[in-house]
Amino acid sequence: MHKACIAWTIYCSQGKIDVAYQTSNEALGLAEESGDILSKTEAFVNHGVCCYAKGFLDEAEKYLLMGKNFSERANLLAHGFLSIWYLGVVYFLGGDHRRVQEYYNNALSYEKLGIMGSSWFNLLRLILTCAKVMTNEKDIDLKLLYSYVSQNKIRRAEGPIRRYLSEILLNIDDDHLQEAEDWIKQAIEADKKNGVRFELGIDHAVCAEIFKRKGDKSKAREMLDRAIEISKECGANGWVEKYEKELTKL
Fold this sequence. Notes:
This protein has 13 helices and no strands. The protein has helices at 2-14, 17-34, 37-54, 57-74, 77-93, 97-107, 118-134, 142-151, 158-172, 177-194, 197-213, 217-234, 237-248. The termini are far apart. The protein is an all-alpha fold. The protein has a domain at 1-87: Serine Threonine Protein Phosphatase 5, Tetratricopeptide repeat (Alpha Horseshoe).
C-alpha cells in the first residue's frame, strides 16, 4: 500500500513517471501475492493512474476498472472516487465524451461525503464541462467556470484548472481563442512554479493546439517540441509518441 501511494502521490507529482510506473508495478505484485483486498484496491487504482501518466491508456483503463471494483467491495470511497476520476480522463483522451459525462456525473455524488475538498470537485466540473463542449453543448456558464480559479485552494490544481478552462474556451467557438491562449499561458506558469512536470507537458500540447487553430504552425511546432521534450524527461513514453504523431501532421 505504501509503495502504491508513493508511486502516485510523490513520483507522479514530481514528473518521475518511469519511477512511478516501476514502483506501482512492484506494489501490484506484492498486493496480488498477499491477496489482501485493501492492498489490491490501492495497488490497482494507483497503478492505473501511473499507467495513464506513462501514456499506456488501455492498460490504465484495465487497472482502473479493476481498482474501482475492489474499492466498491472494500467500501474504500476515496479510491473509488480516484478510479472514476482517472477513468474519465482516459475516456476523454479516447474521445468518448459521453462516457466521461456518465462517470463524472456519478463522481459528483461523492462531494457530499466530504472525501475531497471543493477545489478538486470544481476541477472535476471543468473537465465535465469540457466533455460537454466536445459534444457540441453550448449552454455554458463561463462566469461560474471563471469563479473556480479564485476559489481554488490547492496548489497542485492551479495549472489543470486553468488548462481545462483554456480547452473549454478553445472548443466552444472561434471567438475565444485569445482568451484560451491567455489561460493556457497561465497554466504553464502555474505548473512551472509548482514543479509538476508531467502536467507542464500537457499544457504545452494544449498550447500547440491553440496556435494550430489560430493558423500559427511555427508556434504550434515549438509548443509540441517542448511537450515532447518534457514528456521524454518524465519518461512518459506514450505521451511522447502521441505528440510526435501530432507533430508530423502539422
